[in-house]
Amino acid sequence: MTVTTSGGLPDRLHDVIVVGAGVVGTAVARELARHSLRVALVDAGDDVGNGTSKANTAILHTGFDAVPGTLESRLVREGRHRLAAYAEQSGIPVEPVGALLVAWDREQLATLPALAAKAARNGYHATRLLDAAELARREPHLGPGALGALEVPDEWIICPWTTTLAYVTQAVRVGVDLHLNCRVQSVTAGTHHELSTSRGLLRTRYLVNAAGLHADELDRRLGRQDFTVTPRRGQLIVYDKLARPLVGHILLPVPTALGKGVLVAPTVYGNVILGPTAEDLDDKRATGSSAEGLETLRAKGGRILPALIDEEVTAVYAGLRAATGQDDYRIRAHPRLRYVTVGGIRSTGLTASMAIADYVTGLLGDAGLHLGPTRDLDPVHMPNIGEARPRPYQRADLIAADPAYGTIVCHCERVTRGEIRDALTSTVPPGSLDGLRRRTRARGGRCQGFYCGPAVRALFEDGHR
Amino acid sequence: MSRTDRAVDVLVVGAGPAGLAAAAHLAAAGAGRVEVLEREQEPGGVPRHSHHRGFGPRHRPTTGPRYARRLAAMALAAGAAVRTGVTATGWAGPRTLDTTGPHGLERLTATAVVLATGARERPRSARLVPGTRPAGVLTTGELQQAVHVHGQPVGSRAVVVAAAGADAVARAAVDMLRTAGAHIVALVTEAIRGPLRSPSHRFPVLTGSTVVELTGHGRLTGVRVRGDDGRGTLLDCDTVVFTGDWIPEHELARSGGIALDPGTRGPAVDTTLRTALPGVFAVGNLLHGGEPAVRAAAEGRGVTGPVLAHLAGTDPWPGGGVPLRVAPPLLWVAPSRVRPDGPPPLQERFTLRTAERLPAPVLVVHQDGRILDRQRLPHTALPGRPLHLRARWTAAADPDGGPVHISVMSDSRQSAVGGPPILAV
């Protein structure tokens, strides 16, 4: 098992290098790990899932509203079934809450049957129309003026962090090399690709571009100018767990000609999120929130769920979606270059990730990569950081076996010393306190470190000594 | 999921000044088995890591850690059990709490429960400060523990942001940062008058100013501030400490179905510190946040009589009482329920907060249009500082009437501010 974060890189010829260790890159690496190939996964960041994958709406989609007939529609539909099963097997937190597209005016109400028909064209037939009375029964805290809703029962919520970690853990355990803090600076094509990175040279026969926001830049280094990624910022507000009883479903906006609205949704950690905004920007590092963005969200959220706005805010974050000006993914093989681009993976990428990985592996095979026989990977059992199943602090059996699971360090999120220790010694350990938070939730709660910050930091630094 | 069931007479949740004082006095008064649950590894609450002097009685000030140790020793000497590293995770019944600790899971049932879970400072996110999410963004509580408990380095250039009235805590943050070797770039406060005027503190105080953005990826690189003239400044720093802006740690109370006061966001209690839930009391900064430790300890002491009466069964749990409501610019009043036939609150006064500076204000107490009392305060009331209303009027309130309102009549204008129009007196 090899995970490196600094120093030189192995001088060997890889079969495949995947650039970008987000949810898509890790899924591709995991899929390739099922074949007898020499694979490396590289990322410029200090952790996996450190870009768009860590800051999204964390929804396991059905694809009901995709553009019918697109690759995205197909891969979301396939990926959803695969990820739901994989999450169950691997212990990735998921909650089958379902979604309601809430109509707030006559025009939106009139759109709902068309959305149900579109869902059917996408192969999803379980939608149902709710009248205002049933909607009020199902969501009693909705603001005044909700006229009805379209129910999409199979839109679920999921933990995006654990998903990425599960993929990469399985990949690394069967021999995929993971190199972090490794930024690809240039690519030279020849009998094989030579990648010049911030940590030295890497050589590979085949290359997969899963660089997310930077996929267009990497494409250009290989002489391709197929698309341009425009970062689309989505700001989100995370509300306190005490707000969780206010909402039962994912409350989706009805898309209209006037643009997209914002959603209100529970999270698997027991919080409520409000967002996202949609702002097209130039700066791929503009992951900050803005006063206007937060004001807009609070105004919209206050109409959807008035009581939400009085609750305490736990966190605010912003993610950048990789918009490419086309309503579909941009996955393309360049067989002569022995190169596959996985671009334009939008907010559905988490849901579709396993199907994307399968599709990309097929493209590599078509491009001449000899895949050989497939093997089954040993299942992975991820630590449970969701609220739907018992957490370690609730388990007498675990505490009896090891009192570290009875010692709560982060009080807001009830994270124990045992869980922090486990994360620090895991297959892909965190490289920062933020990475530790994504693995355990430590410091991610309402106090944001007032009570536990220095204690968690001390455990993290001890673990790195 | 095996849990051990156990019963105690009094269960105190939280071993800060209020909880320890309550436990010490209850155990000494013969309340039976008194047990304090503390989720941290050491008892003492916030004073544990407040190393400045100014704790304890005014004539004999001491440091926070000494004060914390003294209170814990008093509770133990009186016979209370103080169990650290044990968290009350939720309610299994009206006076039954589930706990987690290294020795396992328990279910504790008590005749009386005293909630003393304290308060925390709102972090940057809850204050909705925009910008990136870099390292180096702290509250005073985190800063103090980093420096004094763990000896961790903080940055080299620090900005301190003081919420209205957070003078003492902002001063503590400045001292702590200097102890840790940081240069103070500026103190930023929305208040018009700065909280730190002492000539011994040599750094810019930006009054009437708001933090509008944090910058930096990975580590903080700057804090953008806007003054009341609308002009922006980017302060170059690697650390920012958000001080004050306390919020009661009310989650356990709320998850038990205890009604909160909309102003304090702590449990609504009557003058004997009873919540709406029979057998459950609340004391200390859980009720109002940000009051000095001695005040919290006094409330802990003050709950002794009411708890003993409850244990003796001589005092049936009363109904809700009449709620107290404040009008702007007043923010809250505590306690916030009153029974006309009940005893007066601690020190026979109510504590209030104002959002605005009020020179020599007159507080008017009225119910259903009837004036119950008018009290002139001899001083200027300041945001973030307590002001007090004497409780001499409570017997005059109508137990079957509407809420009792407290509003401010400014002395200069002789007209009610924010009160109902009927108050044209």
Description:
The complex is a heterodimer of chains A (465) and B (425). By secondary structure, chain A is an alpha/beta fold. Chain A folds into three domains: 163 residues, FAD/NAD(P)-binding domain, CATH 3.50.50; 149 residues, 2-Layer Sandwich (D-Amino Acid Oxidase, Chain A, domain 2); 72 residues, no CATH class. Helices cover 30% and strands 23% of the residues of chain A. In chain A, the strands form five sheets. In chain A, strands 1, 2, 3, 10, 11, 12, 13, 20 and 21 form a nine-stranded mixed β-sheet that branches. In chain A, strands 14, 16, 17, 18 and 19 form a five-stranded antiparallel β-sheet that branches. Chain A has a four-stranded mixed β-sheet with strand order 7-8-6-15. In chain A, helix 1 packs parallel to helix 5 and helix 10 runs parallel beside helix 12. The longest helix of chain A is centred in the first third of the chain and has 20 residues. Chain A starts with a strand and ends with a helix. The relative contact order of chain A is 0.18. The C terminus of chain B is likely disordered. The termini of chain B are far apart. In chain B, strands 1, 2, 5, 6, 7, 8 and 19 form a seven-stranded mixed β-sheet that branches. In chain B, helix 1 packs parallel to helix 2, helix 1 packs parallel to helix 6 and helix 3 runs parallel beside helix 4. Classes of the chains: A alpha/beta (465), B alpha/beta (425).
